[in-house]
Amino acid sequence: MSDIASQTSPAAGPLAGLRVLELGHFVAAPFCTRLLADLGADVVKVEPPGGDPVRQWGQLVDGHAPWWSMHGRNKRSITLNLKHPKAAAIVRDLAARSDVVVENFRPGQLDRMGLGDAALRAGRPDLVVAHISGFGQDGPYRDRAAFGVIGEALGGLRHLCNHPAGTTDLPPIRIGISIGDSLAGLYGAFGIMAALWRRDAARVGDGRGRTLDVALTDSVLSMMEGLLPEYGVLGTVRQPAGSRIPTAAPTSAYPCADGTWIVLAANSQPLFARLAALMGRPELAADPRFVDNPARLANVEELDRLIGAWTGTLTAADCDRRLEAADIPATLIASAAAVAADPQFRHRGMVREVEDPAFGRPVLQAGVVPHVADDPGAIRWPGPAVGAHTGEVLGELGLGEAAVAALRAEGVV
Which GO terms describe its molecular function (predicted)? Predict the structure, then answer.
């Protein structure tokens, strides 16, 4: 594909001026770098000549995935065949101009390409290198293949994402997104900023580069709340709880008269008292079965039956209005259509219309998180075409049009 003129505009956000080189594919590393790019970092994404496989994930429109519009946004894409002998030198030159390299190949693969940590730091000794992999850079599982679902399963999440034991023979439920990859990307971004702080901060900076080792499995396990402490102290194995949580009640989804569901969480004493009054059953707050959280947990089946009987007499919208008026945490379960129209998300810029030439019309995208009030990030452009910035980025390395054309002819880019 021929290069296009740069779509970049002056970077906005607290990370403006930070240069990140992404040697990533699929979800985890690209999600990490997208977070950094949203806050202003200049992310150069290296893709194989055919592009990141995730470009073809999800529903396609004329060969283009709407997801890519958001997943690849704010990045500059260059094509580079890392299997070609001349590619490693170009990556090293790019790394020398970068603050951070993020990659999610299998452990050891970059070393075999001549792109191990020492090689990447040859021209930038203080480079931060973030490795994101399924099981980490060491350990007995180091070389096993993994995707996000594998991290979710081994990390304990898949065991908990199920209906209570004995209620169904269906397999454990998968969360509807690649949450294991995204968690690893979040931890990667957090680790990168910690390493940059230690390198560059005026008070504590030591000028050293650091290597980060982020595993999908570790990232999921880190989110498992009391799963390990409870097992270690009590020997208990936390079990799936369906729509409930095992630590507080009532917290669940309840059926409404129009066939939809509402989620409510009235799991403190004042909240439960307000809910009982709203239900027309104020005596429930003093009922020995429900008088405190341990009692409500012990009698959760009956408690949820009573709440469900009340919600079942109301439409979800009516139930939501009543719960809001009583200041009880509650919400309807939002579909994509409901999210897109939600006034709260719209007000906060969390649903944005982004012009994307691949579709000839705006694409809805999620906004930038976190919101930095006095220096917000921005969606500067959607996910670019494959290699859209190859000539531009290689030009920054001092390669002219003829040199880039020669690399194309050789199959390097």
Answer: CoA-transferase activity
Question: Per-residue pLDDT tens for 244-254?
Answer: 998 999 999 99
Catalytic, out of 3, 52, 181, 304 = 181
Query: What is the rounded radius of gyration, in angstroms, for the C-alpha atoms of the chain?
Result: 25
Q: Residue 286 phi/psi, 5° resolution? A: -105, 0
**Which DSSP symbol is given to 385?**
P
Domains and CATH numbers, the chain: 19-223+344-410 (3.40.50.10540), 251-255+261-332 (3.30.1540.10)
Note whether 43 and 74 are within 8 A (CB). Answer: yes
Q: Would residue 143 show up in a list of annotated catalytic residues for this protein? A: no
| Contact between 165 and 15 (Cβ < 8 Å) | no
Q: Which of 132, 186, 27, 182 is nearest to 194 (CA)?
A: 186
What phi and psi values does residue 392 have, to the nearest 5 degrees?
Answer: -60, -50
Answer for the pair 123, 92: CB distance below 8 angstroms, yes or no.
Answer: yes
Q: Are 182 and 31 in contact (CB under 8 A)?
A: yes
What is the per-residue pLDDT across 130-181, written as a single tens digit (0 to 9) for each? 999 999 999 999 999 999 999 999 999 999 998 888 888 889 889 999 999 9
Hey, what are 84's tokens? Answer: 């070609």
Which is it for strands 361-366 and 42-47: parallel, antiparallel or unpaired?
unpaired
Q: Which two tokens stand for residue 109?
A: 């693969």
Amino acid symbol at 72? G
